[in-house]
Predict the structure.
Amino acid sequence: MIEDTLRRYARQDVPASGLQAADVLIEARRRTRRRTRLAGAVGGAVTVLVAFGAAAVVRTVVPAPITAAGPSCVVDQLEIPAGTAGGVLATGIDPSGRYAIGLTGTQDVPRAVLWTDATVTVLPAAFTPKAVNTAGLIVGFTGPNQHDDPRQRPVVYAGTQLVPLPLPDGGVSGAAYAVNAHGDVLGTVIRADGSPAAVRWSTTGTVAIVTTVAGASGLGLNDNGVAVGFDLPGQHALRWSADGVTTALPVPRAAESASAAAATDDWAVGDATLPSTGSKGDLTAQAAVRWNLRTGAVELIAGISGLRVSASGTVAGTTGTGAPALWRNGRIHTLPLPPGIIYPGGSLSGITADGHSLVGGVEVSAGPVNTSGPDNHPVVSDQTVPVIWRGC
Amino acid sequence: MRTEQEREYVEYVQSRLPSLRRTAYLVLGDGDRADDAVQDALTVLYRRWGRLTEVASLDAYVHTMVVRASLTYRRRNWSRVLLRGEPPDSAVECGSSRVDDRVVVREALSQLPVRQRTAVILRYLCDLPVADVAQVLGCSEGTVKSRTHHGLRALRAVLDGRAPASVAATAAAHRGGQE
């Protein structure tokens, strides 16, 4: 397998180096001082070139303006369950904001965390929670939390027990990614040949294959039964109506491609891939796509990724610098980060229906290098703590 | 930078240096160039050290900086001419297939479009989980999977001998709508 070839390549011996941290610091200081001097010397020349129109810059995609969220938007750390080793990441919140779910444990044995009514619990069953609905029904998968591990199985956690979701004919593994208010579940199964298929499980436990498009992954499901996902080989965002009709979601004119990641009420959201400009900024350039599932309208939102969307159409994602943010009414608002942390940043993984509460994780310090064995990696980095933003 | 911040910076660099240099070496296949790429990335980190409140996962972020610095280093024409104190690759036993594997894999990686290459390197050479790669690149996990999927497919075609690296990478990019 190509993955094994790459991992063997990664394990090769690397020749020793004389590079030392102290030398790195000295060189970084030297270059920084030199850069500062050069910047001052070059400034005047640039001004002249601009005055003669020699430095014209054309931008075809203009990012939305970015400002900090207002003072009503506050961040709090969610309680970390007693006895937890390693980091904890909040992975979702139900549309009402009553239930929040999280992830901890190791990659081989991930554990689910549930916050509700001011209590926090590590659920007794080992699984990775991906979504929770207003009734507290949690969906996700058992098995190792590693990309496309064949031991993954879709499950629901209803109250006190883990219930496996049946795999359709031909499916060998899979995961559940979304659950709506009626308890319908959407996920992806992997067939024996490695190709994915989007699958919907009804509340009666029967399996319905949402699509038979080869390579299609199911990721989002709204309360009207409309599902969204994407066709991996073709790089198309797809929409499946409640009766199973498949249609391609349009790609914004300025984007090369788009993938759908989530759906809530009339809205679906995902990432757009913008044309390469050849600059270093390509790698961190962010653009979300928001589709109106009722009208078919599509819009490109540059400056933020499209990870989640609220019923009101608020888009949650991260900016090019990794700052958690939301987009509303044409503006990007960065969310506050907890005070007193040394190396903070943030990830976003859930938003309520009203778009005012969000959950995710932040890093509290660089911490020690993980020295655990290859089979015992924490599923969430040791420095990650779960957070909730309210009033945003 | 304040003294306290410099101390934190040095402690961080000290603890991560072997891992960062390994990453650069895997991309470049040359110890001296790897040292230079790591220094480039850590110099940028030094300038940004006091403003890291905007950074998500620091380790993944810094690894990404090193990968980017290494990829940039590869693109510089002048960097093709080097005077080295030792051969660029370490020796292996005569008759071993390892040397071929390393050269072929590195060359195949170098032909991928930059977004696919970055995703594949961070996932499989740096062993970062999909979630971390998505976080540091600021895209969804689906996007990371898509880029690695297309990158792996192109690599597979090259390593199976079904297509020259440039052809496979171009085809993958075309199908994936990237680059």
User: Anything to note?
Assistant: The longest strand of chain A covers residues 171-179. Chain A has a mean pLDDT of 83.
